[in-house]
Specification:
The chain has helices at about 5-10, 20-40, 45-65. It is an all-alpha fold.
Amino acid sequence: MHEIDWEKVFTYQPATEDTIPKYNAIREQAKVFVQTILDNAPGCADRSAAIRKVREAVMTANAAIALDGEV
């Protein structure tokens, strides 16, 4: 296991020409998945939680991209 560069983790990582398409691809697929949840799951706390978790997954995937897999 490698040492984590906490300075990098907590520093803003601007989008680049290479990362922008990756962020966009993840967001587009998340929108499709959220719409599928909305279309098929009844409105309830579990549906809301599922959507929050999709949002969390997008944010975590974006962090992986921004940090280039270093964490």
